[in-house]
Design brief:
This protein has 10 helices and 12 strands. It has helices at residues 22-35, 50-59, 71-76, 78-87, 105-124, 146-153, 163-168, 173-179, 211-220, 239-252; strands at residues 8-11, 39-42, 63-69, 92-95, 128-132, 140-141, 144-145, 158-160, 186-189, 191-195, 198-202, 225-228. The strands form 3 sheets. Strands 8-5-4-3-2-1-12-9 form an 8-stranded parallel sheet. Strands 6-7 form a two-stranded antiparallel sheet. The protein has 256 residues and is of the alpha/beta class. Helix 1 runs parallel beside helix 2 (50-59) and helix 5 packs across helix 6 (146-153). The longest helix is centred in the middle third of the chain and has 20 residues, at 105-124.
Length: 256
């Protein structure tokens, strides 16, 4: 289907408890459409046949702007992933965790080389491979962080920058958006709050991040998709209410 005229999407990771069967995914798409969403990032759904997922996307006129894949899948199931993405008319996937063996300087170098090679394979298929960061990729090796080294060493790798985790790692989300201009097809947006003296992700506009600066950087660098993510429900609000509040707040900030 044709991409809708909106930048706002939501990652199904938020709603993973409501996406484990085809019946639940059908209900989830319907509920998201009622809120106003027209695009999703498919992540952490149950073992549903990709053809059936495509049928549900078409039924609800829901566009798949991105997916997530694990490292084992990228290494061993490349052809299946490409076929699935093309079936869903999706041009971008991202790795959500780099594994446990890449945190030494030498391990990071090997990881960057592998991601660059896999990224090149995706490019040859007309697709893009990205990397979703967390706070721990801001560990420093000499004068550069893991994330800086990764993107410097893997030119075929795109970014799925997460603004919450970037801030949590001590980075400036807006600066990173500008530094990665042209390499962020999809950005993950969630806010940064402190509850019971602990950092937690919360709804966009309900925490402490500088959203005018972040949105301006996204607009200036022509990021196509703003994927709303919230790792877990908050103690005082259910995840469905949070997904709706983030959508409304982002729209109120002028994002179409």
């Amino acid at each position: 289907m044709k991409a809708p005229d909106t930048k706002i999407a939501v990652t199904l990771f938020n709603l993973r408890d409501y996406c484990q069967t085809a019946e639940d995914l059908d209900k989830t798409f319907a509920r998201l459409k009622k809120i106003g969403y027209q695009a999703v990032q498919i992540s952490c759904i149950g073992p549903i046949d990709p053809v059936e997922v495509k049928q549900l996307l078409d039924k609800h006129q829901m566009y798949c702007c991105a997916t997530h894949e694990g490292l084992a899948g990228l290494r061993n199931d490349f052809d299946e992933i490409v076929a699935k993405m093309k079936l869903w008319e999706c041009e971008f996937t991202a790795l959500g965790y780099p594994g446990d063996d890449c945190w030494s300087f030498e391990g990071m170098i090997d990881f960057a080389k592998e991601m660059d090679e896999i990224g090149a394979k995706f490019k040859a298929e007309g697709l893009k491979l990205g990397f979703h960061n967390h706070h721990y990729e801001f560990v420093k090796y000499s004068d550069k962080t893991f994330l800086e080294e990764l993107y410097n060493r893997a030119p075929n790798l795109y970014a799925e920058l997460d603004v919450y985790h970037t801030a949590g790692g001590g980075g400036n989300p807006s600066k990173w958006i500008y530094d990665l201009e042209g390499r962020i097809p999809v950005i993950h947006l969630k806010d940064f709050a402190i509850i019971n003296r602990e950092p937690v992700s919360c709804e966009i506009g309900e925490g402490n991040l500088d959203w005018p600066s972040i949105i301006k950087a996204c607009e200036d660098t022509n990021i196509r998709w703003y994927s709303i993510e919230q790792d877990d429900p908050l103690p005082h609000r259910g995840i469905w209410d949070s997904v709706e509040l983030s959508f409304k707040n982002l729209k109120a900030m002028g994002v179409k």
